[in-house]
């Protein structure tokens, strides 16, 4: 059944068939994705905000994909959809922490009624991405979030005179602490242009309850960037109380989703892999012509 085999294997097989009848080289999975992104450049450009270019988004997305080989095992439509989601929100995937592409196994039912697993990409907004989206509203003077450790001092008062006092463990003068201890919670503070403010605190039990509902609870940023995800979770929980536009508010609904409904891209779509779809870095590092090897040698001595 087609669903049981990897999309990349299907594409590779079709490309090999074409290559057998001509001189077309068999593309690597990374270059196959590069070709898809090249084909989608027009759609990416229309989705991006003015401060970003499709070339930059494509380059960042490809770098992110190449640094995580598991992403290349995911379905092409879900991978392209994640790129489009980051483009629509104007968030850069990868180490900057705006958003993440997280591979996960999705259980599906085949035409024969049997269950099978298929790897897809889940789009996940990061803490910095949430902060960036909130600031775009123009109604927020400042917004930040912090994790709280076991040996920190924290005092929170709700009511007519809300107040929050947080002293990190390493700055405490009342009690000297030798270590931070475990994370016990996180909070966000937002100040509005009209003079108002909003404080929201979540104990670690609530944060972990949110994590348990995530498809990526055991991989991705929940493992590599735990405290960032704690802060992102508390910001998202307080999102509905922030003075932001409907457009920005609805953008958060795209968080932690996986899509396969990109127009013109399906598991059976095969496109030609040509020199124009291969990144410059590939032309200098792959086994190529003598001129390209010379270019590589020149770079090594610069």
From TrEMBL:
Residues 1-10, 291-302 have a biased composition (Polar residues). One of its GO terms (biological process) is DNA metabolic process. Pfam families: RecT. Signal peptide: none annotated. Residues 1-26, 282-302 are annotated as: Disordered. It comes from the Bacteria. GO terms for molecular function: DNA binding. NCBIfam families: PRK09846.1, rect. This is Recombinase RecT. It comes from Paenibacillus rigui.
């Amino acid at each position: 059944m087609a669903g049981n085999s990897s999309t990349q294997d299907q594409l590779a097989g079709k490309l090999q068939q074409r290559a057998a009848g001509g001189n077309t080289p068999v593309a690597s999975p990374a270059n196959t994705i590069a070709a898809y992104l090249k084909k989608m450049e027009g759609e990416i450009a229309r989705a991006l905000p003015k401060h970003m270019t499709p070339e930059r988004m494509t380059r960042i997305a490809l770098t992110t994909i190449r640094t995580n080989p598991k992403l290349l095992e995911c379905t092409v439509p879900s991978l392209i959809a994640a790129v489009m989601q980051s483009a629509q929100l104007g968030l850069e995937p990868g180490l900057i922490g705006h958003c993440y592409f997280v591979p996960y196994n999705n259980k599906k039912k085949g035409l024969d009624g049997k269950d099978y697993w298929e790897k897809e990409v889940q789009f996940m907004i990061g803490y910095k991405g949430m902060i960036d989206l909130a600031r775009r509203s123009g109604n927020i003077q400042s917004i930040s979030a912090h994790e709280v450790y076991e040996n920190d001092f924290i005092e929170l008062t709700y009511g007519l005179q809300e107040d929050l006092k947080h002293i990190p463990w390493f700055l405490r003068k009342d009690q000297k602490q030798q270590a931070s201890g475990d994370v016990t919670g996180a909070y966000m503070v937002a100040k509005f242009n009209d003079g108002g403010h909003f404080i929201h605190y979540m104990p670690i039990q609530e944060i972990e309850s949110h994590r348990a509902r995530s498809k990526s609870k055991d991989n991705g940023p929940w493992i590599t960037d735990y405290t960032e995800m704690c802060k992102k979770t508390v910001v998202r929980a307080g999102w509905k109380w922030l003075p932001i536009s409907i457009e920005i508010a609805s953008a958060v609904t795209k968080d932690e989703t996986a899509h396969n409904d990109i127009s013109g891209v399906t598991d059976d779509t095969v496109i030609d892999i040509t020199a124009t779809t291969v990144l410059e870095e590939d032309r200098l590092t792959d086994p190529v012509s003598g001129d390209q090897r010379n270019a590589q040698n020149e770079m090594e001595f610069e």
